[in-house]
Amino acid sequence: MDVTAVYVHPKFNKTLANKRITGCLSEVSTLHFGVDNITPLPINTDRYFPFLGQRTEALGWGATNIGGDSYDNGTYPDVPQITTLRMNNNYDCERYWPLKKNTRDNVGCVLGVSMPVGYRTAVCVGDSGGPVVAYGKMWGITSFGPTNCGDMNAPAVVTRVSSVAPWICKTLEKVNAEAHKH
């Protein structure tokens, strides 16, 4: 996968980048998902969606092994994976991670869930930057989570796209307009 362009949000700064909060879009030349037609997901604009306790799905190329706590220790898939998570209270993320209270409206807090077949779900090393979806809408971008993948008691932090939805839509409109000129 080759990155062909990066679009940085005008209010992005390195201080936030060091806290691992997403602030840019990347354009890639090609991604192959094994299907011919992919419909883009609508971008959520409601800062309260999804609601506390609702299930949500994260997609990514992160490590798939429990305890895959570093890039060197991880087992990585060839195709993106999907995992089910549950919306949690942002205060739990604030207690667990050194987040500033003024980030509350810009993040979502998710926890892994136990599945009937005896395994648990979580985001893992390498999932950062992947979409987080609920009810067919992209509401977030995986930011970071616990070092020990699969720790269901440690919340993961998701950047809410509602806080930057106008910028994302405007940027995508410009990119699409440029693409149609050529």
Automatic annotation (TrEMBL):
This is Trypsin-like serine protease. The keyword DNA-binding does not apply. Residues 1-173 form the Peptidase S1 domain. PROSITE patterns: TRYPSIN_DOM, TRYPSIN_SER. It holds the Pfam family Trypsin. It comes from Gonapodya prolifera (strain JEL478) (Monoblepharis prolifera). Coiled coil: none annotated. GO terms for biological process: proteolysis. Keywords: Disulfide bond, Hydrolase, Protease. SMART domains: Tryp_SPc. The keyword Protease applies. InterPro entries: Peptidase_S1 (IPR050430), Peptidase_S1_PA (IPR009003), Peptidase_S1_PA_chymotrypsin (IPR043504), Trypsin_dom (IPR001254), TRYPSIN_SER (IPR033116). It comes from the Eukaryota. One of its GO terms (molecular function) is serine-type endopeptidase activity.
